Amino acid sequence: MTAEIANMASLLGISPALLVLVLVWSLAWKGIALWKAARKGHLVWFVVLLLVNTVGILEILYVFLFSELKISYEANVRKSGVRRKRKSKK
Fold this sequence. Notes:
The chain has helices spanning 2-12, 16-40, 43-51, 57-64, 73-80. The mean pLDDT is 84. Helix 1 packs across helix 2 (16-40) and helix 2 runs parallel beside helix 4 (57-64). It is mainly alpha-helical. It has a domain at 23-80. It contains 5 helices and no strands.
């Protein structure tokens, strides 16, 4: 494992310690953002955060900015007072 990290770091031109630090940083923020997106039911954000690696930048923006926005249809409906008709069971 150590040899792989050293090889990857040498290919990137950085120290192995910095590579490990960036990986831990990115993984921590990705986990937090994915957990929050799943809990809020933001499927599109969940998929984007899962597939796109931005070394934690997009994840931090989601956690502190985008997840707080009321972007779901249900939130807009509740806010406007409009109610959907429910299908009656017959």
